[in-house]
Each structure stands twice: as structure tokens, then as C-alpha cells.
Specification:
Largest sheet: 5 strands, mixed
Helix content: 25-40%
Radius of gyration: 32 Å
Oligomer: single chain
Length: 234
């Protein structure tokens, strides 16, 4: 309340709000939104890697399979049917979406994503799939179980110089062969980083999906999905 017990005017109240620190300015609020987006995206990508992708890669490694292809199906690709409506023609298998016609060198692992965060509108944003590829690459290569043991460092051996020989005029030749450094373990130039490296490729691609209706009728559609290819270089 102003002096003399008179209520402040509307203009005075607006001016007081602008000068106060109770509410953040437009710039700080925008930065908060950007920070929130970055944090939520990073947390969700890490969750998908830890809960869905890494267990599949570890399972493939237990079977001795080096190449793995994972197809992530967004949650809103197929609208789920009402599970309460069933008929005598319904299948017992709850899985109604299957990736077909997929050519790959590795074993295809299909993952049906769930929840509003896994809609196609999230994964098709710029930089999301690239971040998934980068984080997954770093995680797999940082894990000790996926790294090959480093070779022991050995000191290169030096060849002994050739003994001097007398020439035609009885003079000793000083043109001895220079010492050559050789390594018994490295026949050539081999990069140590290539040993046991996990190569990751993640792309947003069109996937052919086969669906099954409640009456057992098949249908084939094409939708976008995330295709992840992982290769272990042993």
C-alpha cells in the first residue's frame, strides 16, 4: 500500500512486478525450457540404452554373435486394439506387430517401445537419433567387457651391426649396415584402438511391418522406426 493508505494504481503494480525478482525474466525462462529439454532428452536416451538396448547386446555376446541389428518400433506406430474385445479367432500370442522383409547381416532384434516419450514425434526430431548413436557408442566402448586386452608393451630389439670386412686393397670397410629396430609382436602397423571396438550405427528408416487383427487377418504397412546396427570387432 502506498503512502497515505491509498492503493497503488495498475501501472504502479506492473512496474513493481517488472523490477522485482519474484518471477524470472523472459530470457531466463527460455533458458530454463532449453535446459529442461536437454535434460529430459538425455535421461530418456540413457534409459532406452540401459533398459532395452544393452541387455540385447549382452545376450547376443553370450551366444557368440558379433553383429546385432535392433529395430525400435515407436509406441504410436500401431494404435493398440482393445484387449477386452476378443473373439474365437483371436491368437494367444499378444504380439501383433512384426518387422518383415528386413535384410541384415546380423540377427534382428525387435523392440516395441511404449509410453508417450517413445512416440515417433520424439525420435524424428533433429539430433535425437544422432545422440542415441553417440551415447551408445561411448557406453559400449567404455565398458571393460567389450574391450580387448591391451598387448604388452615390449622394447624393440636392435639388430647387431655387421662386422667390418677388408676390401680389395686391404682397407676395412666402415659402411656397416645401420641398426634396424624390429618389434616381434607387430608385423605391421596395427592400430590398437581397432581391437575389440564396438561400431554403432543408428538411423531413422522405413520399416515394413506385418500386423495381425483381432480376427487373425494379416496386413502389411510401412512405418518409420529406429534401426540400430552394432558390430563387435574382436
Amino acid at each position: 500500500m502506498s503512502k497515505g493508505g491509498v492503493l497503488p494504481s495498475y501501472e504502479e503494480s506492473i512496474g513493481a512486478d517488472k523490477t522485482g525478482d519474484s518471477f524470472p525474466s523472459g530470457a531466463s525462462k527460455g533458458q530454463q525450457i532449453l535446459d529442461q529439454l536437454t535434460m529430459v532428452r538425455a535421461q530418456h536416451i540413457s534409459s532406452v540404452i540401459d533398459e532395452l538396448i544393452s541387455p540385447l547386446v549382452e545376450k547376443q555376446a553370450m551366444y557368440g554373435i558379433a553383429d546385432t541389428t535392433i529395430a525400435l518400433i515407436p509406441s504410436d506406430v500401431i494404435v493398440p486394439q482393445d484387449e477386452t474385445t476378443r473373439s474365437e479367432f483371436d491368437f494367444d500370442n499378444p504380439a501383433r506387430v512384426e518387422a518383415v522383409g528386413f535384410t541384415s547381416d546380423g540377427d534382428l532384434q525387435q523392440v516395441q517401445l511404449e509410453g508417450p516419450m517413445n512416440r515417433i514425434s520424439f525420435w524424428k526430431q533433429d539430433g535425437i537419433v544422432q545422440d542415441l548413436e553417440r551415447v551408445l557408442q561411448d557406453r559400449l566402448n567404455a565398458a571393460s567387457k567389450f574391450r580387448a586386452p591391451k598387448p604388452k608393451t615390449q622394447v624393440p630389439e636392435a639388430l647387431p651391426p655387421k662386422p667390418s670386412k677388408k676390401g680389395f686393397w686391404g682397407l676395412k670397410s666402415n659402411a656397416a649396415a645401420p641398426s634396424v629396430l624390429i618389434s616381434p609382436t607387430d608385423p605391421g602397423l596395427v592400430s590398437e584402438e581397432l581391437g575389440g571396438q564396438m561400431q554403432v550405427s543408428a538411423k531413422l528408416e522405413e520399416i515394413c511391418l506385418r500386423t495381425v487383427s483381432a480376427f487373425g487377418l494379416y496386413d502389411t504397412i510401412t512405418r518409420q522406426g529406429i534401426v540400430i546396427k552394432i558390430r563387435a570387432r574382436c
